[in-house]
User: What shape does this take?
Amino acid sequence: MGTIQLKKVRKAFGESIIIPGADLDIKHGEFIVFVGPSGCGKSTLLRMIAGLEDLTSGEILIDGKDCSDAAPASRGLSMVFQSYALYPHMSVRNNIAFGLKMAGETPEQIAPKVAKAAETLNLTEYLDRKPGQLSGGQRQRVAIGRAIVRNPSGFLFDEPLSNLDAALRVNMRIFIMQLHKDLGATMVYVTHDQVEAMTMADRIVVLNRGNIEQVGSPLELYNKPNSKFVAGFIGSPKMNFIEGSIAAKHKAKTIGVRPEHIDIVSGKGEWQGKILLTEHLGSDSFLHIDAGDAGRFVVRAPGEFAGKPGDSISLKPDAARIHKFDAQDLSIR
Amino acid sequence: MALKQTTGQKITITIVAWVIGLLLFFPILWTAIAAFKTESDAYTLPQNFLTTPWTLENFGIVQERSDYVLYIRNTVIIAGLSTLLGLVFAVPAAWSMAFAPQSKPTNNWSGYKWLAIIFGSAGLAALVLYFMGWHPTNFLVGIILLLMFVVPVSAWVWTRATKDTLLWMLSTKMMPPAGALISIYLLFNRNGLIYKDWGWIDLSDYNLVDSFWGMVPLVMLLNLPIIIWMLYTYFKELPVEILEAARMDGASLWNELTQVLTPMAMPGIASTCLLNLILAWNEAFWSLNLTNKFAAPLSFFISEYSSPEGQFWAKLSAASIMAIVPILIVGWFSQKQLVRGLTFGAVK
Assistant: This one.
């Protein structure tokens, strides 16, 4: 089992309130991603679940049991740190075995478990090396090995991929998703990278200044954001926000349209603009457009777009995909 | 930083460096030469060390007159044990200050209130003592009177913020040791307040003067602030995530300290030990005042050759060379560790 429930979890360091009160239900086997800009409290929330940070008030239930004051190790969770946090003086074998040793298991019990974890992670040939002799990706795998060998009911990942280079990050992302499938364990994953969040999560928790803004599946957040913050944070490139008279026509303070929901039309469209800049990615082109009253925004054109900076262009937003926000930046539906 | 130097500058700097180096080294050089001269040659002015004969007789006489082995044994015991004992206190202290610092005092009493409490209770204890004729009639009373001073001071230290505690520790090194000499001597000589034949135990049998029971803790306490500071700066550089990972892995406090922190901090602990060993080895003020035979270390051994009857410079030099050679060798082979130890925290 691996259910985690947060009930009115609050964290304050002296006067400054980091998390004013968070409620969340994590079901067994779910892949939950905490996402938000840096300083939004996502790591603090994870560390509170891990038991590395005390709760100011509220409750954390793990498998239905109140663990608010329990020691980190007794919560049945494993954690993978951003900086790997391997024991530099121990071999890979001992790094992976340390938790089992601390749990009082005998060397005979430990050896096969370590061997199995090492095999899963392709680390068998590195077992006798020290962490200092490994590459970044290998170190991260050791850190994951250390987490899985204890057979925990849940895994906590604190920005585990942000120290890796881009190519390796994609590989490790797929690896962690595969691991989640194979183990079927609950995973809570913290990242500031919304691409990681969208691709990996069963449900995404978007945090802003310590508040949970919205919880939902990636597509729910993409299609029905609760607020301007979520709308702007999920999706790449960012949603375009337009205020003023154009927004007023839709009876909203602000309207938002994603770059992929604006069509380039020949003849007269809804908006006229001039191309300022084009970004060519091969599969798509992103056009930065100055549309006068509507302001500056980004439009996605599929494939290779022939237009050059300075060209005039007509645009037509997909009416069904226009998001409307009120003066409090909340969605109008 | 690439500083371009002209040849002239290089030559000047080299000469200045050599002059300073020789000036600093000269006393040791002189001692080393004088040790191998006869007493009169070492004393005669103008000195001519190049033409006078070389001799080993000083070393023989020194060994005959005072037992070098006894002194070096005592020094090893005092320096070694005080370093080990210091680590026992300093590792947990530095650990807690580095990884669980207290950013603000835990109570907000004013300094005056604390002063009143500390001096008030100490004064009360002194008053009771005064009317008892400076000797409590009961062992328990003696202990209680002692606690009346120790407890408020400890309570004050306990509630301070970490950086204040660190500064306070360092400030104990700012006081001239001579200022505490008389009280320490009385504590040692008479076991403080509780020196007495209590029937079940005769404390007058256990004089701390000239004993390892006195010298080891004393030298340990002398250097404790430095050990804690060095370990603290070293521990602060260690990533806290590794200790958190150990906590997630179920390591108890003991396992966290012994299996993760200590092995990781071994280079820092080693250089701290080394520096402490050297400081304890060279300690002279307290050794000269509080020992005279049984627990006397090498600094006492050297001073034996400087007496009111006259300075025996050649023998004094021989004794000095005998005293410093072991630590010189240790220091020479561990230069790298020492420099690292003294500069860590300086550069990230």
Observations:
- The two ends of chain B are 16 Å apart (CA to CA).
- The beta strands of chain B are 306-307, 310-311.
- Residues 41 and 47 of chain B are 7 Å apart (CA to CA).
